[in-house]
Amino acid sequence: MPGAIYAEGLVKTFGDVRALDGVDLDVPEGTVLGLLGPNGAGKTTTVRCLTTLLNPDSGSAVVAGMDVLKNPDAVRRSIGLSGQFAAVDEYLTGRENLQMVGQLYQMRAKEAKARAVELLEQFDLTDAADRPTKTYSGGMRRRLDLAAALVVSPPVMFMDEPTTGLDPRNRQLLWDVIKRLVSGGTTLLLTTQYLEEADHLAHDIAVVDHGRVIATGTSDQLKARTGGERVEVVVHQREDIQSASEVLRGFGKGETTVEDHMRKLTVPVAGGAKLLAEVIRELDTRGIEIDDIGLRRPTLDDVFLSLTGHVAETKDEENGKEAVK
Ligand SMILES: Nc1ncnc2c1ncn2[C@@H]1O[C@H](COP(=O)(O)OP(=O)(O)O)[C@@H](O)[C@H]1O
Ligand SMILES: [Mg+2]
């Protein structure tokens, strides 16, 4: 049985650009799929096709049990959407915006009011509740946009880069909100450029590049393919590279890479912070002076590098175009 969000062979072209080149997805009910990819990969186009805002050239999609192409109105009634194109009325206050959404969804006025109060509180907007939205900062708008998507709890939600442009505190706040939402049974498709975010929130991850899903799996599975954590060391003196490399070999789970000009050595490891402490002690014992040392998890770039053999392309102009001001 197909999941709450199901897509097969979605293709969408814009002139010469093949934005989607056969996207397949299957998201089981009550789970979170993180759609991960660099700018221009096709994330937003996928979301727009699944939320009836855009018709694919070919392929099919079923959302909340209904065919997106045959039954768009019914799909729209069963989904919530927040993202790079969702609209907030500039001239209304935050409170009015949220109440209006509630009324659009046929809530009673009293109920819509109460829900607005709750969400303003949750998103730390109570103080600004009665100011016109046009006076809000970028981060505040972003939060209001997300709150608007949560006025009703539809069975299926889409969030397009919900935390891009949020500071760490608000990112954490949003993560908590999302976790609560999902524990209530909502199926969520979330796009992000951050592996860390998918890590916190998603049951499964689909990596998209050039309009195709190039890998799927849990975050752990993707990281395992990328080789797990790495220790990075920058030695103070070039002469120490060789002996540092010997130390790392003793702890590593794979080959040590050396960037000579930066005096930097990197090795995949398994063992976390405890192992890091041992590496530091061993370097110290041998009198190797270090400028910097750290443990890092694979980044999106590492995952991309290992999946595609090339560093993810970045297309910043698109980011600019889509950015919520
Ligand atoms: N309306 C459009 N007109 C022309 N090209 C578009 C349009 N929307 C998206 N594209 C192109 O399709 C590709 C995928 O874009 P998009 O889905 O927005 O990627 P992402 O959300 O992953 O950054 C990009 O090359 C982008 O320039
Ligand atoms: Mg996008």
Automatic annotation (TrEMBL):
GO molecular function: ABC-type xenobiotic transporter activity; ATP binding; ATP hydrolysis activity
Membrane topology term: Peripheral membrane protein
Any Pfam family hit: DrrA1-3_C
GO cellular component terms attached to this protein's record: plasma membrane
Keywords: Antibiotic resistance, ATP-binding, Cell membrane, Membrane, Nucleotide-binding, Translocase, Transport
InterPro entries referenced in this protein's UniProt entry, alphabetically: AAA+_ATPase (IPR003593), ABC_transporter-like_ATP-bd (IPR003439), ABC_transporter-like_CS (IPR017871), ABC_transporter_ATP-binding (IPR050763), DrrA (IPR005894), DrrA1/2-like_C (IPR025302), P-loop_NTPase (IPR027417)
PROSITE patterns: ABC_TRANSPORTER_1, ABC_TRANSPORTER_2
Family recorded in the similarity comment: Belongs to the ABC transporter superfamily. Drug exporter-1 (DrugE1) (TC 3.A.1.105) family.
Name of the protein described by the UniProt record: ABC-type xenobiotic transporter
Organism this protein belongs to: Streptomyces cyaneochromogenes
